[in-house]
Structures are given as C-alpha cells and as structure tokens.
C-alpha cells in the first residue's frame, strides 16, 4: 500500500489512529447491534439473543410515524426557506458592495456559531413576547436560523470562485436579470446549493436543543427518542429508529461531500 | 452623418476618483477605433460606459443617435469581447455562441445554424461540442469573438482582447481582427495599453491619461505629431526635448519631440550636432537602442542592426534632420 515517494507511517501512529477511529465509531455499531437484541428493558452485553421482531414493532407504532413525518416536513420546509434566503443573501454579499456588508456576513453566520441553547432561549422568549403560539411553524423558524447559514456558506464559496464578468457577459448578450439568473448563475451554483441544502436537511433532521425550546406538544424524531430512553418499554425500537436516522442523515452528507469536491471543475472560470 | 458612438462631456466619477472626466468623442460608423492609455487612464471605463455596465455621472452618450443613459446593457445593440473572455463554463462552445440568440427566443435549429456560421467565421468550425475548459487561450478568444458577432452588433467592444495571448498568436489575431472588421463593416472599439497594437490596427486612436483624452488622430498623427509630452512619451517612447534645447534648432521656445529612429549617431566628435556620451546599448534584434546623455539631457536613439557602434562611455555626435523635430502644442 506504499505509494511512490511517501513514507509509511510508524506502527505506533497507525495503532493510535485505529484506536481513535474505533472510539468514534464502535458506539454507533453498538446501537445497531442492540436493535436486534431480544432483551427489551435494558441493554445487556452480549445480547442474550438476536431477533428482527423490533423492525415490525417499530413499523406498527403510530408515534414513530408521527415523529418521523414531522421531522421530515420540518427539515424540508426549513431547507426550502434556507435555500431561498441563503442564495439571495450570498448573492448580495458577493456580487455587490454596500455599507455594512461585512457585518451582514457575520450576522448571518452567527446563529451557527452561537450555542444552540442560546438560539433556543432567544427564540422562545421572542415568540412568547410576540404572543406567537408554539406550533409546527415555530419549529421551522428555529431550524431555518441555522439552515440558512449552511446554504449561505456554500453559495458564497461558489460565488467567489465564479468569474464575475460572466454575469456581465450574459447581460451584454441580451439577457435580463431573470434570464441571467436562470441560464448562468443557477447552473453555476446548483451543486453548491444542492450540497448546502442536503447539509441543512441533515442538520434540521437531528436537531434537539433549538427544537426543545420552540416546539409545543409536537415531537420531532430526536425529541421522541429522548423521551423513549426515559421510558424503558420496547427499548430496541429506539435503536431501530436510530439506525434509520443514521442512514437518513449520513447519505445526504456523503452526497454533499462528493458534490462539493467535484464542484471545483464546474466553478472554474473561463480563464 | 450620425456617429456610431458619441460622448458629450461624459464623466464617470467614483467618489473623488475621476475615472472618465468630461470626455468628448465621436466614433464614425465602420471605424476601427482604439482607446490607448496606461492602466487606470479611464479607457476601460469608457468602454463600459458604451456597453452600459456604467452610467455617466454627467454628460451624455449616444449610440447611433440614440441616447444611451439609463438603457441597460441587454437593450443595447452593442456586444463586448471581455478581457478574460467570460465564456460560460457549463455550456458547450456552440451553446456559448448561441447564447445571445437563445435569450432572444430564437429556435434551437436556427440559433445553432447561426452559431456554427459564426464559429466558421472565426475559423473554429467543428469545435461546437467542446467545453470552454478544453480550449486553448487563442481558441477561447475566438469563441468570445464569435459569441459577440453572432448577435450582429452595431458596435463591437473589445477589452484588451489580445492581452492574454503570446506574441506570435497576438500578431496573427491582430491581422485577423483587422480583416474581419473590414469584411463585416462593424464599428470596432478596441481598448489596449499596447501602443504598437493600437497603431497597427486602428483607423484612429484616442490616447487617454487621467480620465481625459490627450489626443485623437490617425496612428500617423499620433506617432509623428504628438500634441503633448505625455503622448510623445507614451506612444513610441519619443525623446521629449525641453524648450531651451528646441529653441536652438527651431527658434521657437516650445516643447519638442524627436523620434529615436530620427537620430543619427556619428563617431566623430566634430562638426554640427549634439555631442553626447553613450551610456548603454540595448540589442533588440532588427535594431539596437542606444541610451545617450547629452549634457544631462537623456536621449534614446534607435539604429539599424549592423551599424558600427561606438563603445559605451565614448563621446559621439548626434545629428538629425530639422524637419523631424516636431514642436508640441503643450504650453511651456
């Protein structure tokens, strides 16, 4: 496995790296194993027996479906809002110069830098101050605050790498603002938006803290899982759901990773 | 006759920077017009004023008799070849060229036919399926040209289009652009900082400095009869002679310009002429450039290759034909 010119790492370093990776990923594997255990009240190692019955049990639990459906809807709508606002904002910041541009850029990024609990408390007090009842839409608003950042960051990076004169060239050739956006800007930032959107969806899908502060009676999937851990009934159902969550969030993140990596060629300017 | 492009006291100020300052300009239809000047002299801003990317702060601009202020770039019958070509990387070469027709709503078959013709015009037939990223610099330049020409503009603007090409390619493109312009009869407005390019290609040249036009004229006018010290120095690095020196030869107390190639360098330090010390020689192939010092006055002379040269440090005698000494308008 030794490539030309590069030296193999010493054995000690290899072992340390392997241990580090195992420490990060073994617990996730444990979650998967417990999804098949026959013991339902507590997690015992090794599992006394293996069964697939929990998949059927999970399938027939309406509360799981409600939580899943709520999480998907919240993530989808927050992502949609983030795509629109994030694109507009990044276009404004990277295409024009105006007073306070740097400040706006910082303020947009701030929600993701702030601890979620602060965003959560702030939103909760703002909602109650304005007498807005907690609902589906308050969760969506809470999630959109950090989803916008992800889309914004991706789009700004792409805008920076696209040649500015392309937009002028399009205008010069007779395209108005809308046509230029549709035929030149959008194709050039599409993969960045897709990547940003997927990350935003994944972030929203497993968000707990902000949701705790902005949700009323509804339970998103992560909140539902927290509740389930407290009540020791049909415990492996949580593990089955956890497996699903891992898959649902991992796939888009992987896709986003590959999309932005290949994006280097797409965004190359005409030089 | 209506001018193709006309500036009346047109200015473009950016804050306190006067990028273009009260410029008057008339470009005739079918003319190959060059805007020449150092970087920051306002020539590119003038081009952007014609294209519509900038609006004049004051004064007015008209294109074929129509007032251009407030008209966005996409409603002007003017197209630009950008310095960095600005091709669309996500479109094929054919779709790049057909872009202008596509946004005008012309059908696919028709616009692709026109785009193919435009590609043949710039001698790139059969390159339509490629991506801009797969082309060389010279080929991209031709695609940018075809993309502009396919719209049949009344005025074609070229922003330093040859700047990124190597010397050989640049010379080829100069000739090609010139013959293309002759064949199409479109008004070309060409921005460059290269005086050789401006002189060899243009019908008329405007020399810019500090947002103002210093002189407009034919290449010969500009080269032989510069009006100011700046023009004399910038176009062809002429020897600018101080009024006291000029008075001795012409009897007039004015700034003078003497082309380096008009100076003859003699080895005998006698007879009528200016005695000077040879500071350095610079071999340029077909010619040799001599740096001279005539009693504190720095002069340059260009002599053909093969001339017997004095040694550096030697004193030589400079002579010139009085008629080559050009007196400039610039006030003393």
From TrEMBL, chain A:
<dbReference type="Pfam" id="PF00528">
    <property type="entry name" value="BPD_transp_1"/>
</dbReference>
<feature type="transmembrane region" description="Helical">
    <location>
        <begin position="70"/>
        <end position="92"/>
    </location>
</feature>
<protein>
    <submittedName>
        <fullName>Spermidine/putrescine ABC transporter permease</fullName>
    </submittedName>
</protein>
<keyword id="KW-1133">Transmembrane helix</keyword>
<dbReference type="GO" id="GO:0005886">
    <property type="term" value="C:plasma membrane"/>
</dbReference>
<keyword id="KW-0472">Membrane</keyword>
<feature type="transmembrane region" description="Helical">
    <location>
        <begin position="104"/>
        <end position="123"/>
    </location>
</feature>
<keyword id="KW-0812">Transmembrane</keyword>
<dbReference type="InterPro" id="IPR000515">
    <property type="entry name" value="MetI-like"/>
</dbReference>
<keyword id="KW-1003">Cell membrane</keyword>
<dbReference type="GO" id="GO:0055085">
    <property type="term" value="P:transmembrane transport"/>
</dbReference>
<keyword id="KW-0813">Transport</keyword>
<feature type="domain" description="ABC transmembrane type-1">
    <location>
        <begin position="68"/>
        <end position="256"/>
    </location>
</feature>
<feature type="transmembrane region" description="Helical">
    <location>
        <begin position="240"/>
        <end position="259"/>
    </location>
</feature>
<feature type="transmembrane region" description="Helical">
    <location>
        <begin position="135"/>
        <end position="156"/>
    </location>
</feature>
<comment type="similarity">
    <text>Belongs to the binding-protein-dependent transport system permease family. CysTW subfamily.</text>
</comment>
<feature type="transmembrane region" description="Helical">
    <location>
        <begin position="12"/>
        <end position="36"/>
    </location>
</feature>
<dbReference type="InterPro" id="IPR035906">
    <property type="entry name" value="MetI-like_sf"/>
</dbReference>
<dbReference type="InterPro" id="IPR051789">
    <property type="entry name" value="Bact_Polyamine_Transport"/>
</dbReference>
From TrEMBL, chain B:
<keyword id="KW-0813">Transport</keyword>
<dbReference type="Pfam" id="PF00005">
    <property type="entry name" value="ABC_tran"/>
</dbReference>
<dbReference type="InterPro" id="IPR017871">
    <property type="entry name" value="ABC_transporter-like_CS"/>
</dbReference>
<dbReference type="GO" id="GO:0022857">
    <property type="term" value="F:transmembrane transporter activity"/>
</dbReference>
<dbReference type="GO" id="GO:0005524">
    <property type="term" value="F:ATP binding"/>
</dbReference>
<dbReference type="InterPro" id="IPR050093">
    <property type="entry name" value="ABC_SmlMolc_Importer"/>
</dbReference>
<dbReference type="InterPro" id="IPR003593">
    <property type="entry name" value="AAA+_ATPase"/>
</dbReference>
<keyword id="KW-0547">Nucleotide-binding</keyword>
<dbReference type="GO" id="GO:0043190">
    <property type="term" value="C:ATP-binding cassette (ABC) transporter complex"/>
</dbReference>
<dbReference type="GO" id="GO:0015847">
    <property type="term" value="P:putrescine transport"/>
</dbReference>
<dbReference type="InterPro" id="IPR012340">
    <property type="entry name" value="NA-bd_OB-fold"/>
</dbReference>
<feature type="domain" description="ABC transporter">
    <location>
        <begin position="5"/>
        <end position="235"/>
    </location>
</feature>
<comment type="similarity">
    <text>Belongs to the ABC transporter superfamily.</text>
</comment>
<dbReference type="Pfam" id="PF08402">
    <property type="entry name" value="TOBE_2"/>
</dbReference>
<dbReference type="InterPro" id="IPR003439">
    <property type="entry name" value="ABC_transporter-like_ATP-bd"/>
</dbReference>
<keyword id="KW-0067">ATP-binding</keyword>
<dbReference type="InterPro" id="IPR027417">
    <property type="entry name" value="P-loop_NTPase"/>
</dbReference>
<protein>
    <submittedName>
        <fullName>Polyamine ABC transporter ATP-binding protein</fullName>
    </submittedName>
</protein>
<dbReference type="InterPro" id="IPR013611">
    <property type="entry name" value="Transp-assoc_OB_typ2"/>
</dbReference>
<dbReference type="GO" id="GO:0016887">
    <property type="term" value="F:ATP hydrolysis activity"/>
</dbReference>
<dbReference type="InterPro" id="IPR008995">
    <property type="entry name" value="Mo/tungstate-bd_C_term_dom"/>
</dbReference>
């Amino acid at each position: 496995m030794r490539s030309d010119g590069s030296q193999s790492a010493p054995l000690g370093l290899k072992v340390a790296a392997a241990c580090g990776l195992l420490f990060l990923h073994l617990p996730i594997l444990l979650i998967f194993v417990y999804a098949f255990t026959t013991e339902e009240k507590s997690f015992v190692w090794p599992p006394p027996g293996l069964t697939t019955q929990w998949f059927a049990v999970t399938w027939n639990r309406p509360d799981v479906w409600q939580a899943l459906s709520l999480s998907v809807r919240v993530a989808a709508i927050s992502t949609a809002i983030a795509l629109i606002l994030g694109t507009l904002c990044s276009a404004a910041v990277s295409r024009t110069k105006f007073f306070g541009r740097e400040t706006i850029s910082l303020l947009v990024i701030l929600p993701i830098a702030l601890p979620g609990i602060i965003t959560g408390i702030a939103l909760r007090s703002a909602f109650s101050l304005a007498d807005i009842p907690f609902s589906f839409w308050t969760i969506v608003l809470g999630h959109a605050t950090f989803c916008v950042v992800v889309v914004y960051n991706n789009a700004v990076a792409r805008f920076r790498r696209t040649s500015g004169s392309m937009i002028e060239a399009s205008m010069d050739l007779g395209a108005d603002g809308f046509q230029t956006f549709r035929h030149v800007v959008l194709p050039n930032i599409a993969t960045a938006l897709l990547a940003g959107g997927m990350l935003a969806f994944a972030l929203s899908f497993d968000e707990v803290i902000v949701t705790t502060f902005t949700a009323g009676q509804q339970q998103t999937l992560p909140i539902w899982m927290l509740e389930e851990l407290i009540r020791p009934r049909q415990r492996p159902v949580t593990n089955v759901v956890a497996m699903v969550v891992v898959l649902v969030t991992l796939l888009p993140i992987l896709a986003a990773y590959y999309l932005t990596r290949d994006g280097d060629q797409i965004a190359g300017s005409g030089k | 006759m209506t001018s193709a492009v006309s500036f009346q006291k047109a200015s473009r100020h950016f804050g306190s920077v006067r990028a273009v300052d009260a410029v008057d300009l008339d470009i005739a239809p079918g003319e190959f017009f060059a805007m020449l000047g150092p970087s920051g002299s306002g020539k590119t801003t003038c081009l952007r004023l014609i294209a519509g990317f900038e609006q004049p702060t004051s004064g007015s601009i008209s294109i074929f008799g129509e007032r251009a202020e407030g008209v966005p770039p996409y409603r002007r019958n003017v197209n630009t070849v950008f310095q960095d070509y600005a091709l669309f990387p996500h479109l094929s070469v054919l779709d790049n060229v057909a872009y202008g027709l596509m946004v005008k709503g012309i059908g696919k078959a028709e616009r692709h036919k026109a785009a193919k013709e435009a590609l043949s015009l710039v001698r790139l037939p059969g390159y339509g399926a490629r991506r801009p990223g797969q082309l060389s610099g010279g080929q991209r330049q031709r695609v940018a040209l075809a993309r502009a020409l396919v719209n049949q503009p009344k005025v074609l603007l070229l922003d330093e289009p040859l700047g990124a090409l190597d010397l050989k390619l640049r010379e080829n493109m100069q000739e090609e652009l010139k013959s293309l312009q002759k064949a199409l009869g479109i008004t070309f407005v060409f921005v460059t900082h290269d005086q050789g390019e401006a002189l060899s290609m243009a019908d008329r040249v405007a020399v810019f400095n500090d947002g103002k036009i210093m002189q407009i004229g034919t290449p010969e006018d500009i080269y032989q009869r510069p009006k100011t010290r700046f023009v004399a120095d910038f176009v062809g690095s002429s020897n600018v002679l101080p009024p006291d020196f000029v008075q001795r030869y012409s009897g007039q107390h004015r700034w003078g310009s003497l082309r380096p190639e008009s100076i003859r360098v003699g080895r005998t330090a006698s007879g009528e002429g200016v005695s000077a010390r040879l500071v350095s020689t610079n071999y340029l192939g077909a010619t040799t450039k001599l740096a001279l010092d005539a009693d504190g006055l720095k002069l340059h002379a260009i002599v053909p290759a093969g001339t017997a040269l004095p040694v550096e440090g030697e004193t030589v005698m400079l002579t010139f034909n009085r008629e080559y000494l050009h007196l400039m308008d610039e006030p003393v």
